[in-house]
Amino acid sequence: MHTMQQERRFIRNFVITAHVDHGKSTLADRMLEQTGTIEARRMKPQYLDQLDLERERGITIKMAPVRMQYKGHELNLIDTPGHSDFSYEVSRALHAVEGAILLVDVTKGIQAQTLSNFRNAKKAGLTIIGAVNKIDLPSAHPERIAMELANLLGVSPEEIFHISGRSGQGVMELLDAVIERIPPPAETSAAKQCAGRALIFDSLYNDHKGILAYVRVMDGALRPGDDVSLIAGGAKFKIKEVGRFLPEHQAVKTLTAGEIGYIATGFKEAALVTIGDTIVRLDSILHADVKPKILALPGYREATPVVFISFYPDGKTEFDDLKKGLERLRLTDAALSFEPDSNEALGRGLKVGLLGQLHFEITATRLTREFGCAFITSFPSIAYHVKEKGMWRVVKDPHEFPLDPDEVLQPMIAMEILAPAPYMSQVVNMKNVFALDIRSIHTLGDNVAIEARMPLAELIRDFDDQLKSNSAGYASFSYELDGDDKADVEKLEILVAEEVVPALTRIVSRRDAEYEARKTVERLKELLPRQQFAQALQARIRGRIIARETIAAMKKKLGDFGKNGGDRTRKMKLWKKQERGKERLQSMARVNVPVEVFREILKK
Ligand code: GTP
Q1: What is the rounded distance in angstroms from the CA atom of residue 304 to the CA atom of residue 114?
Q2: Run of H or E residues at 455
Q3: What is the mean pLDDT of the segment spanning 163-179?
Q4: N or C: which end of the chain has fewer CB within 10 A?
């Protein structure tokens, strides 16, 4: 055991990285157990997964960092979220460590995120230790998968660890390798100028201490009471507390270079403390003849939302409750942004900016689960750059999209799809449905790796589910944003009884416009209740109707005036009255698309 101030050479900082479900959290549990960090009796599965939601869905959004004592060393394990929506956060976390365990499930083999995790770890200059997991399973082919992994890493198969996170087999040996192979934190070149400097790789909201910045200290030392500044964010504050992860927070006197821990900022607003920013002691800036920007650790980027979805309160939820829920979520999620939005049919709502589909699902589930909110969500939209009358502007709301723009640019993604060889043609054929521009295909063990480019808009059109169903669930993909390209898109408007329903306006690619138009009016026809008059359902592009359906009028019996003719004038009067009633109803019908219909039609 060493003194409070840990010597650098006894510190190892690392991540476990793996494709979803390959067993990262389970391995972390065994490590906690085998290092005695958590007593076996306190152990529960996926100890480090903090949110109930994570445990339930079995996906790790973020796992708590933890410090373990093992064979005289301090081992800091931090997590990287596995999904592409959070790729920027992954890259930041990788810059907080020196090594990575790349874990592969022997029953699944290498998958798309195994590849992107490997590349990211390599790009960050990390020492990578390969391990195949779940060797306790009878269906396992550890030798073959270990060979594939060795090939990927460019090492011999003997260097790959064979482990079971479930039984604990091989986990001690893996921990030994962490100490032997991963280098201790090195001194940075700016160390001499820096009294204290740290990289923020994550953050957490705490009711009492405000936002806690999870940091890797790069130079010098940080203590409570130090005056510090956030270089990108610009905010200055006095450190309230510093501490370590046991994994419970434990306050300490100092965090020194090489260590991983937290810094209590006292801020209440997540947006002030962003991942990738640098915390620097003000005396570093005053002393040396340096400008603060020079002390910024490289790679900071603002999280930019790319998908926009409006949330409208539904049922018992009030607008203010929905807003409050989102405000609370934003305290812990600096990537979340929102602004007021309103809609004739759905009332007041909030347009939420998100990093992608998973980010949306997490946000929606947390709003429901943690804040009891009920809501309807709009079609997802993305931000287009639109040129109209020579001027460029950003359009996020389909309703504001011009009918005939000069030029439109849309965000693109570069993606890598990994599929078992027998499914290759089915996956490649997806280019008939999605604007998938396949750049290269090469084999990788039993898989084919397909590199492609695609508009981001295609991804939110259910690409994920389609890929799964075209590959019996085996194919996987990862992606990153890859600039803007010219877009061939149209504004599709839906009209009910001759009037546009703004909530149903969407931007669609030209080649899908007719299909989407037809699908929507057909669906509306099924869903809308009949009225006493015929209702026209139309889809319009650039002022032209391209799909049409009619809901026939409800057959309502006119008053029966008896076989003997009755009073003709009385009959005429009644007819007239009913006609007037119909007109009135017709004008009312314009806004009368019931909420249930929106709920159904906006459902994916
Ligand atoms: P994400 O957090 O979603 O990325 O998943 P993960 O990589 O953390 O995987 P997790 O540890 O949640 O494990 C996924 C599933 O595999 C769970 O059902 C585990 O019980 C199971 N599992 C993990 N390790 C082993 C193992 O060594 N053997 C067996 N048989 N099952 C395992």
Answers
A1: 25
A2: strand 447-455
A3: 96
A4: N
SS3 content of the chain, % helix, strand, coil (to 5): 30, 30, 35
Instruction: Cite the beta strand spans of 143-240 per DSSP E.
Output: 161-162, 196-206, 210-222, 227-230, 236-238
Give 128-165 pLDDT, tens digit per residue: 999 999 999 987 779 999 999 999 999 999 999 999 99
Ligand 1-lining residues (CB < 6 angstroms): 18, 20-26, 46, 58-60, 82, 133-134, 136-137, 164-166
Burial class (CB in 10 A: 0-12, 13-18, 19+), 203: buried
Q: Name the residue of 15, 16, 17, 26 whose CB sits within 8 Å of the most ligand 1 atoms, as the mutation to test its pocket.
A: 26
| Mean pLDDT value across residues 563-582 | 60
Q: Ligand 1 centroid to 588 CA: how many Å?
A: 55
Residue of 17, 19, 21 best suited for mutating to test ligand 1, as the one with most atoms within 8 Å of CB: 21
CA dihedral (389, 392, 394, 398) in degrees, to 10, reads 20
Quick check: 53 pLDDT over 50? no
Rounded-to-integer distance, Cα 118 and Cα 76, Å? 20
Output the CA angle 374-375-379, nearest 5 degrees: 155
Question: What residue type is 352 in one-letter code?
Answer: V
**What are the beta bridge partners of residue 388?**
391
Task: Determine which residue's CA is closest to atom 3 belonging to ligand 1.
Answer: 59
Q: How confident is the model at residue 106 (pLDDT cuts 50, 70, 90)?
A: very high
Q: Mind giving me the DSSP string for 12-52?
A: EEEEEEESTTSSHHHHHHHHHHHTTSS-GGG--TTTTB-SH
Edge to edge, the sheet with strand 73-78 lists: 66-70, 73-78, 11-18, 99-105, 127-133, 161-162
Distance from first CA to last CA of the chain, Å, rounded?
55
Instruction: Indicate the pairing of strand 73-78 with strand 66-70.
Output: antiparallel
Which structure tokens are listed for 12?
A: 């190892």
